[in-house]
Structure formats: structure tokens, C-alpha cells
Amino acid sequence: MEPELTHPLCQCVLPIVQPQGRPDPRYPDTHTYTPHTDTQTRARRGKGFKEFAVSCVEKSTGSNVGEKVSSRRAPRPSLRAAHPAMPGDAHNTPLRSGPFRKDASPPAPEPSSSRADPGSQCHVTSAPDHEPEPQPLGEEGQIARESGSLVTAPSVLCAMVALWALALALATGLATAGPPNIVLIFADDLGYGDLGSYGHPSSTTPNLDQLAAGGLRFTDFYVPVSLCTPSRAALLTGRLPVRMGLYPGVLEPSSQGGLPLEEVTLAEVLAARGYLTGIAGKWHLGVGPEGAFLPPHQGFHRFLGIPYSHDQGPCQNLTCFPPSTPCDGSCDQGLVPIPLLANLSVEAQPPWLPGLEARYVAFARDLMADAQRQGRPFFLYYASHHTHYPQFGGQSFSGRSGRGPFGDSLMELDAAVGALMTAVGDLGLLGETLVIFTADNGPETMRMSHGGCSGLLRCGKGTTFEGGVREPALAFWPGHIAPGVTHELASSLDILPTLAALTGAPLPNVTLDGVDLSPLLLGTGKSPRQSLFFYSAYPDEVHGVFAVRSGKYKAHFFTQGSIHSDTTPDPACHASNPLTAHEPPLLFDLSEDPGENYNLLGGMAEVAPEAMQALKQLQLLKAQFDASVTFSPSQMARGEDPALQICCQPGCTPRPSCCHCPEPQA
């Protein structure tokens, strides 16, 4: 009998699909998976794809991501200037003119419907096709639109999970002939202990729990810096943020700096491989003059989202939960309202927050469908605002989780994950799509119950303790990644080199801090990562890395509290705890003490020889690493210019309050 997964909300029974075949070398007694034949591959890829005409063309010099293409900054043919109206979207308003106007010409054009063959100078071109008719989103069990939100009543939520679980069962044993589609989901301020699959007793996350049950769940996955901007830069480049100048702190709406254009992003790596690339959600890697640092200039063909955190603007008059629950707090004052951008156009300022996640899901579905119609793989970077403060959500989630606003927003994030998986399944692409889920940093515990949970880990956002830098992470790819749990070391820095290996894309010709985890994912080997280095949110070259982990041991050479981790019972987490040097370092055995409660060098007991040897190794690693890393000039030090704040009505007065083009509230 198959094992079953039940969820208390819907009381439905879901199969945990376990592929049959040879033993998984990581878990020989529990899981198996099946290698795939070319016949299976051809049969799978043959479904739903049109005949292709092959034509040889001159190979573009821009396909080499080993170096930035200098013409990238020159004007290029226009992208779709704005995201098309969503079916049933009653509050999709006309675009405004101005610096981010409808006819803006971003420098990274969406490629034609062709897939480059990396081994030749030929492109595979699909036959002409017609745009599909818009599909309604309102049937039960599908993604529905109700008052601008995802609809997930208990029965619908259960049906959504069951639908893609069934699709998973059908997809298992079927492989992809070409590079996989990629869905990279990046949550915001989500703690290690916030998901049901990571032990939270009351979180409503059945879709994420199903991903965990059907995929690989990481117990030791990290980010190098526990703050929004640097963490996102690390994810998209595979490089430490200090190498790019993305320090100290985060970028502001009026910052003159941003992710340098010479940096090679994951989107650029995959676009050169023929992917249709898109980002839905939070960017937070800079706006700059004329939007110079926005996603359309960084390898993304399509963008629908907010260019920074949704609390970086006044929110006291915004609705976070319908019909009229205001956002908690006032957020940042003296700034323009947060803008929703479609590529380089202002879609709304501010957007209707309760309907935002549903719009992102619709955008994602369009991207997937368009890529399939063009006969090319897609890369979706789904950077949700959930569960960052102030939390928001649609009508179906308001007050439904039993965990307050934080739980409600997490519930909507989970529903969005289910909607994305349903969309992939509807296209028949579940066996051809790699899904990765993780988050940018730990919980903002200063918000108390509105700030998330780090489980048994110490502190949270803004610190180098485990609660700040260790994140939940899931990898799901039916027929390729065997279900299980791994305790191997991994980092968000590893995403780019791993995806490059899995897609056959060349690596950028730069120093990468990530490693290729594909052997771990595919069950053919272990993680090559042996150590991890953690920087403060406000680093400098004098102190270097604050903490180092090697194997099961972690040493803190410096510690400093953070306002983001205030209100916890542990004073070491608080902003009042100053920068403190530790000689000898604080040393923890994370296999026995993941909560970092017992300093191996701080007691009266004799220190074990193994621990002393580990300490020497960690000290050597820090010295060597600090000597090898060169800090680039700080992008934050370039200063701020209020004129760079995005305004839907350029030239209006008085700024910033006149920059107000709100989205109608259905």
C-alpha cells in the first residue's frame, strides 16, 4: 500500500509518489527511482509539440555568457511593454506615460520563438501559431479569481494538491530530452521552522509539504547574508555580494546603485541557452537612472513586480486583507507609493495588494504557455513578497490560517505554489520541470507573531546565527530527483552553477562562489561543498566573514545583533548587542546542537581533540578566505537621489504624494 499524506485542513488523502526502479544510492532502504530510456524520452517530448523546421543561421556573439555583451546597454527592440490584462481582472488599469512608459525600449529583447542548439549554428524554429484564447480562472479545483485573490476554500485547496499529485504520478518515469523548464520560487523573510514539512505545528502549507514529500528536502541549506538585497544578488549570480558591491544593508527606492550590469545573472545564463525568462514579484536589486538596473536589463525577457520591498513606501492607507483590513503599521514614510511594474512600465501605484499574488500566478501561466507554444524551455523566477511584513492576502485567506496575518500570507504563498504546479501539470510538463523552493533570509522576529519562526534555531534575519542564514529548501523534479531528505551542505550560491550544469549552459567567466549540486540532486554523488562563509549584513574588509562552517562545526569569530531579530528572549540577537570579537571563537557542533546553545570552548569540561582540530581548521579557512576575497566599491555608497523614485505621473507636484495611480479595488 502506498504511503499517504493527510492534511488537517481538507482531510484529504494524497499519494506520496515513489518512483520504482534501482535503489537511490543516498537512501537505499527507502526510495527508488527509474532511469529513463531514449524511447520514453522521445515519446514524452513528442506530445503536444508541433513539427519544427530547422534553419541554419549565423551564431550570435551574444550567446556567450563568459563575458557581458557590450551592446547590452544600447537601445534594443521593445519587449512587451506591459503585461496583458488578466482574464477576469477587473482592476487592470491603463498604463501611465513617463520614464517607465508603455513604449519604453528595454535593452534585453524577448527572443523569437526559436531554440538554439548549443552544439551547432542551427536554430530550431517553430511554425507560426496563434495566441490562445484567454482561459477563465474560476472553476473549482483550478486557480480561481475572486475579488482579486486566489480562491482556496478547504475543498479547493485539497483538490489543487490532489490534481498536481495525480499529474506527478503520471509524470513519474518520463524524462526530458532537452534542458528542463525551471521554476525558482524565492520566499521573503521565511523562517526555517515556518513550513509544515519543517515541523511547524499549525502552518497551512499542503502544497509545499507535497513538494517536500515528492522531492528532496534540505536540512542544511544556507544563504551567505541574511538580508534581502545581498541574498537575492547571491542567488542570481552565484557570487558573494561583497564581490559586487552590494553592501552594506539594502538598496532603497532612491538608491543610485544596483546590481552592476557587468554581473552575469542566472537569467542571462539561461537566456543564452534558449530559455524564455521571466520574473514575477520582488526584485530589490536596484532601479537606477531610467530603470537601468531593473530585470529587463539583467536577462529577464518579462517582468511583473515591485522593484523593492513592499514596505519601502507608505502603507498606512493601503488595504492588506479585503474587504477593508488596513496594513499593519505605516512602513516607510516620505517615499512614493510602491509601484507595480510591467517590464519598464508603471502598471499601478500602489497596486491592490490582496490581488497581487493572483496576478503573479496569471503572469507565470502565460510565460509557461508561451514558452511551450514557442517550443522552448522557460525559466520562471517567482520571487513572492510573502511572508515579508506587512503581510497581505486575498479574501480566501483572510483569517483562515489560524496563525494570524503571517499564517494567512503563508497560506496564500502555498496556494500560489499549488497553482504553479497545477499550471505545469496542465501543460503536461511536470516531468520536464525542475522546481526549487527556498527563501532569502530568516524570520524578522522583531515583528513577533507577524515575523515568522526559526524553529529551534537561534536568532533570525540580520544575524549570522543559524536562524538568520539557514533556510528551508526543496528540489522537485519527477523521475530525476528521488524523494528524500539530505543533510549535505548547500547554499543559494550553488543554484547558478547547478542549473548551468543541468541545462548544459556555459558558466560565466568570473569567480563563482557556488558549486554544482547536480550529482546530489540526481542521486549520483554527494555535495562538493565542504564549507560555508557568512558575512554580516554590514560587512567590511577589516572583519571579513563573521562565521564559518566546515562539516558539522561552526565558529563565530564576530557576532552582532540586529534590529530585525529584536524581541526574542535571547539578548545576543538584539540590536543592542554590539559588534563583538570572540577569541577564541564561539564553537558549535551543529549535528548535536543546531540551536547553537552550547559553546564547546566555553565550559569547564575538557575540549575534545576533534573539536580543537576543527577549530584550527576553521581559523585557517577564515584566514585564507578573507585573504582571497576583494570587496568591490559599495553600490550603496553611491548615495540616493529622490528623483530616481519611480513616479506614474512624472513632473507632478507635490512629490512624492502626487505619484498616485492606484489600482481599482474589485
Describe the structure.
One of its GO terms (biological process) is lipid metabolic process. It is an enzyme of class 3 (hydrolase). It comes from Ailuropoda melanoleuca (Giant panda). The protein is 20% helix and 18% strand. The chain is α+β, with helices and mostly antiparallel strands and 666 residues long. It has 2 domains: 4-64 and 73-96 and 113-129 and 138-154 and 180-523, Alkaline Phosphatase, subunit A (3-Layer(aba) Sandwich), CATH 3.40.720; 547-633, 2-Layer Sandwich (Arylsulfatase, C-terminal domain). Strands 10, 11, 12, 13, 16, 17, 18, 19, 20, 21 and 22 form an 11-stranded mixed beta sheet that branches. A hairpin with a 4-residue loop joins strand 1 (4-7) and strand 2 (12-15). Helix 2 packs parallel to helix 8 and helix 7 packs parallel to helix 8. Residues 1-108 and 111-149 have low confidence and may be disordered.
Integer count of domains: 2
How large is the radius of gyration?
24 Å
The percent range for helix content is 10-25%
Distance between the termini: 47 Å
Low-confidence segments, given as residue ranges, are 1-108, 111-149
Q: What is the architecture of the largest domain at the second tier of CATH?
A: 3-Layer(aba) Sandwich
Q: Overall pLDDT, averaged?
A: 79
Backbone structural class: alpha+beta
What is the tally of helical segments? 12
Question: Would you give the CATH topology of the largest domain?
Answer: Alkaline Phosphatase, subunit A
Number of strands: 26
> CATH superfamily of the largest domain, please?
Alkaline Phosphatase, subunit A
CATH class of the largest domain: Alpha Beta
**Which of globular, elongated, flat, extended, rod-shaped describes the shape?**
globular
